[in-house]
Structures are given as structure tokens and as C-alpha cells.
Amino acid sequence: MKSSWPLLALLIAGCTPSTEIVEGSSSTAAINPEAPYLWGNKNFPKSIGLSNALSSDEKISITEMGDAWTTSVSARSPFFSFSNLTNNSYNLERSDGVLGVYKVYDWNESLTPNDIPSPIAITQIFCRRYNIGSSNEYCSIEHADILINYDDFSFSTEINSADKDPVEYDLRTVVLHEMGHFLGLSHIPEWIFRPSSESAISKSNYKATSVMYPSIDFSEIKRVPKTKDTNALNSKYSISGLASSAIAVESPYKPNASDLGKNVKVVIELMPNGECHHKMDGVSIGHHSIKLK
Hints:
With 293 residues, the protein is of the alpha/beta class.
């Protein structure tokens, strides 16, 4: 059955994807892939279910990273609350009403086409796109899930990173990154496309400035959001400490008059490398390390 949430864009490893018109949109303007996305319902915490396939150590790792985001901006209300799910069932077609973190054992073409290397994890976001083609275009998040690729990768929950197997990814690092996407943060540019203000910085030092770099390797341990990340989050939600149940400051993101919005789905991937993949009609037509125009 065809989803009522057309895929907006597949954001891979820092690529800036080509714009595309959302099928059925009342606007003839192109979608802006750089437009911000954030929770339209700004009430926090967001209740996240943890798959029953996750071990107790994995659940602890996940909840710790949720707390890390809250602590990073000194929010008076946590961003996340966690509960245990009785299943590992997620829906790739539409919002199922359960925000969740899931283990995926059968990563296949329904998640990533076979001719594209598998990501370490993805955050899928179902949102409503407003003001398409306007300078104030944005995507209001209504549902999100984090899917971790246990089919192709192994993950460590060791507290001491020195105890981690050298061919395992640090689960806390992966989850902290995906929770940034869950809150509406995008990838920072890859090092070769870094801002001119950071032109003199080395690649390793540049990657260390944010937990939202689009790719990681086995050795990376990032368990606390960086200043660049907290500034982005503060800016997105006008945070001056979250109110007890909602963000009190009025959001700059509003639908234009009579704009009913359009359902779209965004998928953001964390890759084990920095390659950029081109897609045309859903098929990979090549890959390189140059930013798409």
C-alpha cells in the first residue's frame, strides 16, 4: 500500500540533496531540504518506548544519552521520558503513534537500497511541511523513531571506552547523535565543506566540535553534546530553560495563513564513512565526496 507520507529526502553523510516537489502538494514550489524541522507540539518530555529486544545495558545507555541532552541546555523539564515496549515492531510507512528506539536485525531495501552502503542507524521523521517555497518554510515533527542497524554492525555498552571491542561502535555515541536528529538537529557540514571561519581547523578537531557530524568510526566516543549542538538547540526552540510542560517563548515557525501543510517523511542516516551518494528515482547513480549542488 502506498504511504500517505511521501519521502521528502534521504540525507546521507552530509550531502545536500536536490530539492523535489512533494506529490500532491498544493504548492508548485520545490521543497527546501535545508529548511528546519522541529516538534510542532513543543510539550516535553516526549515519551519514547524502548524495544523489548534491547538489553538492560542498552536501555541504560539510551536513557543516559537522553539525560545528556536535557542537561546540556539546563532544561527544567527533560526532553525525554522512557518506557519499555513489549515488542520490536516499527512502521516504515506511517506514524504508528509510538515514538520508539528499535533494533533492526534485517536491514534491507525497505530501509536502504541494496546498492547503497548500510547506515549505522537512522532517524525517521514524519512531519508536516508548511510554507513550501517560502523563506520561512519548515517541517513540523509529529512522529519520530530511531532504528539501529544490528544486522550489519555491532555496538558496545561498555562504560569505560577502553574496554570496548575495537570493531564495535559505541552505542552511547550513536544514540546521542540520533537523539539530536529526533529533537530536530541536522548534520553539520562535512569537514571539506566546513565554514570559512573554521577553515584552519584540522579534521579531527572539527569533528570534535559537534556530536552531529554525519559519519563516525569505531574509535569515536562522544557522549556529551558540544557547544555547537546546544547553541543549535537553544536557537531552534528559543530555550531559556524549558517551562514545566512547554516552551514558553513564542516560536518563529508558524504556518502562513490558510496553509494546511503537507505530510512528508524525512530519513537521516549516520554512516560509517563520509561518502555522498547520488540518487535518481530512488536508484543510486554514483558516489563521491563532493557536495551536491
